[in-house]
Amino acid sequence: MNGTYLPPVKHVTPLNAIRRERRLPVPGTVTVRVNEKVQAADILAEAEIKPKHVFLDIARALGVPIKEVGRHMACEKGDRVEAGDILAGPVGLPRRMVRAPADGRVVEINQGRVLFQQSGRVISLQAGFPGTVVSSDGLQSVVLETTGALVQATWGNGREDYGVMRMIGDTAADRLQTDKLDVNLRGAVLIAGTCQHPGPLRQAHELAVRGIILGSASSELIPMMRRLPFPVLVLEGFGEVSINPTSFNMLSTNIGREVCLTGKNAKTYESQCPEVIIPLPATSDVDLPDEVFPLKVGLRVRLLREPYFGESGTIREVLDKAVQYPSGIMARSVKIELSSGGTVTTPMANLEVIQ
Predict the structure, then answer these.
(1) How far apart are CA 281 and CA 148, in angstroms?
(2) What is the dihedral of CA 225, 193, 278, 256, to 10 degrees?
(3) Tell me: the pLDDT tens digits for 304-350?
(4) In this predicted model, what pLDDT tens digit does every residue of 207-238 receive, in sequence order?
(5) Fewer CB within 10 Å, N side or C side of the chain?
(6) What is the CATH number of domain 18-46+131-279?
(7) Per-domain residue ranges for the chain?
(8) Which top CATH class is 300-354?
């Protein structure tokens, strides 16, 4: 029965082929060719977001009759304006005004209202990591491949960037603290065991760091981390948990290298998760990592529930019969030898594979 259960997989691999699709939100034009080598900052594709039209009620905004709007207009039909330019007013002691909501053009003025066309904007798709273009649809999607180390995370704040890795502290449990952050870290990607207070995040923002990799963080920091302009990745989960030994070893042995952070969380039915890509040269051909692992003896896993949350170990036995737990739940289970010592029995559903 163990072959029918396929647990989630988190890749923590020292050297693999890594293939990722980079995709524009709307169709545009791909600007690279298949087999072309690109760098992290290179543009792969561009698209123009169509202009949006909005009605501005000038009469109501100024508090004047429709028939008087004309003498208060500061623009004419066809005028191109920039965001914040005055379209009408000022009127009265409050000096009521209507300003352009964005760069754009005055399309029509009629019945006390303005039809305003916001300018379309060009969006660019960056490579995000150095690699080779494997395929493209020519309009919206580009697939890149590189070789390197890969460390996948549990949560990300949706941002992407790249920079040189720097370690904060010496161990997998060290906290991100304000007294450890200085101007020498400007533009770096910071690694720390945990963050429990907002102060270090504010200071990292002021230092213009390029990203933060944490083992864990307080769940109260989630809204703040989502607002930060750089990627934040949480490897283990929320609370106060050290970086697991495998990931810590992978990251710490590559300090000083440029890494690429993707903080985008997977949507339903998507397998990609937040991750750290460390581009590395390969002396021979390397394979793509496997995505499916039936539970079996010898497999490395991480526990996802208390009382062993965040701990890792190796499966020593896949039990044939379901186990009843103190809560009364019957669950298919495995015995795991923990890296920290000791053997525990835990439900299969509490595990993820570390490859």
Answers:
(1) 7
(2) 110
(3) 788 877 777 888 988 888 888 888 888 888 888 887 788 888 888 88
(4) 999 999 999 999 999 999 999 999 999 998 88
(5) N
(6) 3.50.30.10
(7) 18-46+131-279, 52-119, 300-354
(8) mainly beta
